[in-house]
Structures are given as C-alpha cells and as structure tokens.
Amino acid sequence: MKKKVVITLSVLFMIAIIGVVIFAVVSGMKSQNAGDLNAATNDSATAANAAPATIYSDHYKIGVVQTGLGGASKDCYGGFMMELDERQLMGNLEIVYIVEDNEELCRNKIKELVDGGCDLIYTIGRFASETAAQITKDIPIVFGAVNSPDEVGLVASNEVPGGNVTGVSSYTPCFEQIDLIPVLFPKAKTLATLYSATDEDAVLQGIIAAREAKNIGINCTQYPLEDKDALKTALDKIKAAKTEIIYLPVDKFLSANIDTINAFAYENKIPVICGDEATLSQGAFATSEINYLSIGRKAAGMVCDILFEKKDVSTLSVMYKHDCTNFVNKAVRDKMGIELPATALGEIELWEAPTEPPQAAPAPTAAATMANGATAAAKAE
Predict the structure, then answer these.
(1) Interior CA angle at 328 toward 203 and 197, to 5°?
(2) pLDDT of residue 358
(3) What's the rounded Cα separation, in Å, for the pair 130 and 154?
(4) Are 373 and 91 spatial neighbours (Cβ–Cβ below 8 Å)?
(5) Does the predicted TM-score (pTM) go above 0.85?
(6) N or C: which end of the chain has fewer CB within 10 A?
C-alpha cells in the first residue's frame, strides 16, 4: 500500500514538472512572436517614412537662357541646378545653358533652342523672358528674376498666367522687410513709409508695405513725396508724431536724398528699414534681401511640376513670396547705439561694407558645370 502511494506521488510530481516546462516554452514562443510582430511593425513604419524619391522614366531637353553676369543671375542658375540635382533628375534631363548679354545674339540663340526641340525654357532676367515669350507660344517658359511679369505682359495675371509663361518674381520683398520690424523691434507700433509720388513702382511698394504693417499690428503713415520740400515736411511730421521706424522702398528720389534722410534718422534715433542692399550700404539700418539661389530652386520646382507632374503652365501662379537674408548694418547699429533683442540674433546677419573693391566677374566657361559634377551641352559666349 505504501509502495503504491509513493508511485502515485512520483507520477504526479513528474506531470507537474512537465506542465511547468510546457508553460515556459509556450510563453517564450508567445513573447518571441510578439517581439517579431513589433519589430516588423516598426520596420514597416520606418520604410514608410523613408520612402525613396520619385523615379521618372521621362527624358526632356531644357534650355537655360541667362542675360547678365552678375551674382544674382548666377545664383538663379546655380539654385536651379542644385534643386534638379537634389531631386535626382539630372539623368532625365539634357540642359543647354546659354549666357548672352548681347540682345540680338540672345534672340538668335533662343530661336535655336526652339527650333532644336527644347521641351521647356528657363529664362533668367526680363529680356530673355520677354524674348522667349515672343518667339514661342507653345513651349513652356519658366522665368526667374522678373520684377513685375504682369505689368510687362509676360502673364495675363500673376494668379492665373493664362499662357505658356510663369515663374518666380524678384520683386522687392516688401512683405519680408516689414515682417523684419517685429523681429528687430518687438515693441514698435508706428511706422512711416516714404516714397516718390511720381514713381509708380515705389508707390506700389509703399502701399504694399503699409498693408503688411497693418496686418502685423503696426500703424503705418504713408508720405508720398513730390520734391525736397515735401521730404522736409514729411520728416518734420515724423518727428512730431514720434514715429518709431521709417521704411524706404527702392526709389531713385529717396536714393538721391539718402544723406538727408540718414542725418535725420541718426539725430532722432529712428532706424530706417530699406528696400535693398544698395540703400543699406548708403547708411540705412536694415533690410531683407532676396536669396537668388532660392529663386532658382523654386523655378526648378515649377519645371518639375510642368514636365514630370504634367501640370498646366497656364494655371501655375507666379511665385512672389521669397526666402530672404536679413541684414543689419553693423556700423549704423553701433552709431545709433541700438541693442537688438537676443531673439533676433539668430534671424539676422550683420552687414559690413566690403574692404576691397569687387573684382570683375570672370568670363563664362564654354561648358556649364552641373551641381553633380556632370557637364551640360552648353553654349556660353
């Protein structure tokens, strides 16, 4: 009897051990399966987030026509090529790059591009853009660095171009220059805009500036000027009103009288935000300058939309909003004793007058060098 009890207990003990082992194995398998599932889910999410760039099979020929050898024109071309390269499209494109200042030669070379079967023309500068638009009404044209394409007849309207031409304007970045004010002077609430009453472009810039000031909560008084007497009267009113900031658009009359404006600004500690770097170099306090590389990049994006995404050029709105570099004239800042807020330091660059005269631009090479090191079928003069 005692022997049977011992055997029974031994059997039960073995069954218990086997059960524990089975439980452990099953639990381990469940844990591993769950881990594998989680890993697979994470891998899928990672793959989704790191989707490869779109690969296109289409091939196109693009003519690039640049008038002018200045830094802005070169940057419009450089930014264009960089964007295409970063989008991994260089293998899909044949680029014919033309640099020509002579108007008649430029016209002839654009005709050669049209007759040579270009699928699209990228024009840098007003003359190249207008000439291309005159020569072809069928081939899409994307321009860079044209101030007012609607006013010169390149497009029916900036919102809906309506033809075969669209692009990126280089119009004075009035919006960005006014938006610079709260960056530099967060507490400023009053602004005076000066502009020549007989310069239509300056008037438009002044109006745009006033509207943008209102949009960001700054009260702006406009002073259209007809002569030097009107300028003196305006400055007297600005002083009496204790206006905090002055804005100067790009304006030949103001440029001719910049010494008078600067003397007033320095004496009354009123910083001047201006429309371009030329006025900044004449003694204004700050400006926002267009980054012309970004114009080229945006133009390249439009080219991709037209050629690869099959978007209708006639409905692609002209692009106006710019990527800008904000400059503060270091000498003027020191002269006026203006202390900038710490929050502004990452938003600006301190501008200093060059210590050496600029050197002449080198002659263009016979071949255009691509951003990725390849060589274009270029025709540079």
Answers:
(1) 10
(2) 52
(3) 7
(4) no
(5) no
(6) N
